[in-house]
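Problem: given the chain below (380 residues), write out its structure.
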Amino acid sequence: MASDARGRARDGNGAAADRRWMGAALALARRGLGRVWPNPAVGCVIVRDGRVVGRGWTQPGGRPHAESEALRRAGAAARGATAYVSLEPCAHWGRTPPCADALIAAGLARVVAALEDPDPRTAGAGFARLRAAGLAVAVGAGAAEAAEINAGFLQRQRSGRPLVTLKLAASLDGRIATASGESRWITAAAARGKAHLLRAEHDAVMVGSGTVLADDPQLTCRLPGLAERSPLRIVLDRRLRIPPTAQLIATARATPTWVLTLAGADRERRAVFERCGAVVIEVEPDALGRIDLGAALQTLGGRGLTRLLVEGGARLAASLLRARLVDRLVWMGAPLLLGAEGVPAVAELGLAALAEAPRFEPVASDMAGPDQLAVFRALS
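Solution.
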C-alpha cells in the first residue's frame, strides 16, 4: 500500500486521475474491436509526472499487445511510471513474452488495470507477478466499460462461443420488406452507415442462405477509409444451395468467407465453393436435421471468433432467439408502416405465454437521421 501511495503522489494520481487515464486506455482499446480476435482488444497508457509518455493498443491479428506498443513508444520514460491497462497484463508465453514481465523489466512503479483476465493462463497470475516484483497494483477502475468492450472475449472464455449481436432494421411494425420482397431501403443513409460501422467493430457477420438468395449481399464495410475493416463473412447453408456467383462466394478470396453446412453436403458443390476461396465447415445437425446453432457457435468460438454480428434473415433471427443465443440486440427502426402483409423481422417463435418471450434491457438509444437506433442486452 505504501508503494502505491508513493506512485500516486509522484504522478499526481488519485481516484479521479485513475478514472481519467483509464478512460484514455479504454478509448484506445476500442480501436482493436473486430481486428484482434482471438485476443482481447486492450488499451494501455503509460503516465509519468502527470503526462502520457506512451500509449498502445492491441494490433491487428492480436499482436503486438497493447503494453508492448506503449512501452515501445515510452522507451526509457517508462521507468518509475504508471501503466493504465484495460485488462490484466498476460502472464503466459505465446508468440511474444508475457506483458507482465515486460512491464517489470521496463521499471514501472505501478499498474492500474480495469479487469482480471479470465484466460486460465493468466487469471490473476499477471497481477501476482507484478506484485512479487514490487510494483503497486490497483484493479477495478473502468471495470464496467472494459467488460463491455471485451464482452466477446469474456463470453468466449466463459462459454466457448462468441458474443452474438442481432441487428434488425425494420419498420415501426417490425417489417423488413414488403410482401413482394422490396426492402431497399427501409432505413435511411445515416442508419445504414451505423450498420456498416457495426460490421467494422465485429470479427464476423453472419446471414442465412435465404438472405443470400434474396438479397445477394456483400456484407462488407463500405464506410470511407474503413474498407480494410470488413469482417469475416459467414453464411449458414446446410445444403450448399447458394450459387457460386453470389457475391459472398465470388469475392471470397478478397474478403474471407466461411460457409457452415451439414456433414455429407454435396462434394462437387463443396469443391466449387473451395475453388472460389470459401472455407466450408461442417457442423452437427439438430433434432430436425438443420444446422445446430449452438454447435455452430461453439465451432466459431473454437476458431477464435469473439464478436459475431447477425444480419438476417427472419428465420435465423427466430432460431437464435428461441435458443437464447442472442446477447445483444441492435434495433434500427424506420418511421414507416408496412402492414401485416410485410415480411416480419423475426419469424415464428412458437411462444405459448408471455413468460416464454426472450427479454432484453435497454442499454442505449439515439437517432440516426430519421431512424431510431436502440441497443439492448439480453436478460438471463
